[in-house]
User: What shape does this take?
Amino acid sequence: MAKKSVWSDNRFWQRSAAWITGFASILLIWLTFDTIPQITMGTDADLKQGVTKRVPGPTVINYKITYEMNAKRMHEIPVIGGMNAEGTSAFEEKELFFGRDDWSEEEASELLHLGKLGSQAKNCMDCHTLLGNGAYYAPDLTKAWLDPAWGPEGSMQAITGKSTKEEAMAEFLQHPSNYPTHARMMPNLGITEKEAHGLVAFLKHMSSIDTNGFPRNFGKIQGAVHGK
Amino acid sequence: MFEPFVDVVPSFFGWLNQGPLTMTIFLHTFIVLPMFWIYKQEKARLESEA
Assistant: This one.
């Protein structure tokens, strides 16, 4: 009788499959729990005490946010409230958001929640990308708040006749068809003023999330990093 | 070869995933090595049965 090979033996493959499936299941459960502290939102106290969180608390909308190259991590990171000596967030410099820099945790949470629901109701992801999810038809919104086009040197404040970034964004969101900036024009979605404020807060908060340098090419946009 | 851990939230997978392919090589090693052991056991069983 011919010698039986292990490779053609059913039991070898059964045991290997059981090991791989079991190991992968444990790994995936471990990864799930490992992800929880990474994606848990910080609090107002974290911001006040200078604790860096991957997802900062909602009151981050009171702070100035920039996107700076970090030499250690070799990609851009969101810097909240000015930069400290180590090149990370100092949590000091504030910035008016719709005329205020004292949004309480409750108010800021409510505004962000409204923006989040608005982004889902109006289905932003049908055209845009948010944190890697969505479509590639319209610009990536992950770091839209940091896009220099909306800044004092950009064109959007002049086009919309507003003097701040958040007001220009809110105006654009309410009447996108009045400001055709692109061949792929954004349709009028019937966004109200309140919803627009929520959406802008949602975008500002999203830009403060540490995404390990994603989207990778964002820093190459002129003016986005180091004001260059 | 060993750099200080600079990720925002310390994590075993973050630590493991610092270099090119480090996570892939580690996980594949962990999956493939026990398969050698399974292979040897099954080979011994087939030989004893023959």
Remarks:
- Strands of chain A lie at 65-70, 75-80, 129-130, 133-134.
